[in-house]
Amino acid sequence: MTELVSGRDVLRQARELYAPYRPAVEPTGMKVAVIRFTPAADDPPDWRIRLEASRISAEQKIKSFEHLGFQADHVVLPPGIGRGDFRRVLESYNDDPATRAVIVQFPPPGNLAPLVDHMDPAKDIDALLKDRSPYRACATAEGIYRVAEPYAQDGPAIAVVGARGFVGQGVVGLLRENGHDPITLDAGDDLKHVRDADIVISVTGNPGILGRDHLRPHHRLVVDSGFVPQQDGTVQGDVRREMYGVPQHLTPVPGGIGPVEMATLMERVIRQEVDPNVVPWKVRPGPYLTREQLASSTRTAPSLAEAARLRAPQMSGPATAQAPSTHQPPTGTPHLPAQRPQTPAPARPAGPSR
């Protein structure tokens, strides 16, 4: 039986951890800008779907930053906006000292994408500028890494599907920096290679790309970062819904990595603007069997349900967000650093504590 790894629990924990900073943040007038694009009525359906996902993500970001006491500008740019107008929007936030972070929602129209490079690197909280950013990877990639790492303490095989995309590159980079050697798969590759992995991370945004040919009960964790709105109001991820009972643990869509991204952005802005020693959110992994343990158990157990029961003694409890720390934020006005320090990649935990 699959245990769902709840991103909503992570976000709830983050909101509780960082809400005490609000009295210190709110009087400063510090601001975060989230810029997104809108489709034209005659745009292709695929483009409209991508911008709808961008809208949902932008609204979640606004709520998250406002919860912390930041002013949040939700900038909605009209269809067909020109290069000059878009650049002026970016430059206005670059020049505004109250604006401490800027996020441009992806994807931008192709003719505007190069202009994102004009963003002030010091305000690039989501690593859109890659090597010029203070952060090693976007918030989604960092969140994925931090969810997966507690399940990877024994050096398991990890497959990343969509490894050459923006999020996928960030995930692969963080895994390699922390001692892992992931299997990297992308368009044109045989995705059946995910069966060779113990952990599967999929970041393609291609609905249902992983199904019966790919996922197995020995997968201790499957991280699905796909999020594609449908015309009927539902959302689809990279993993087909009928596979939700197959791996041992799975991040659901919706309610999985999306909220984790928000928790990561909240943590980043507090660390960046208020408290460099802010307590990070954490996830405690649920019990799982290694491939060898699962093979041994199924030789004697009559069903996968029995194998799931046998997992329980290995580790205690389902995958949950850890209880918030009692760490207290500063009571005075936050220090506004003239230059933000480089944020290191998340430290690899000493044990399975997430």
Model regions low in confidence, pLDDT < 50 over at least 5 residues: 313-318, 323-354
Terminal Cα separation, in Å?
20 Å
How many helices? The count is 9
Proportion of residues in helical segments: 25-40%
Largest sheet, strands/sense/barrel = 4 strands, parallel
Query: In order across it, which strands form the biggest sheet?
Result: 6-5-7-8
Describe this structure in words.
By secondary structure, this protein is α/β, with parallel strands linked by helices. 31% of the residues lie in helices and 13% in strands. It contains 9 helices and 13 strands. It has helices spanning 7-18, 22-25, 45-67, 83-94, 139-148, 166-177, 257-273, 291-300, 304-311; strands at 3-4, 31-37, 71-77, 99-104, 158-161, 183-185, 199-202, 221-224, 228-229, 235-236, 249-250, 283-284, 320-321. Strands 6-5-7-8 form a 4-stranded parallel beta sheet, with helices on one face. Helix 1 (7-18) runs parallel beside helix 7, helix 3 (45-67) packs across helix 7 and helix 5 packs across helix 7. The longest helix has 23 residues, at 45-67. The protein starts with a strand and ends in a 33-residue tail after the last strand.
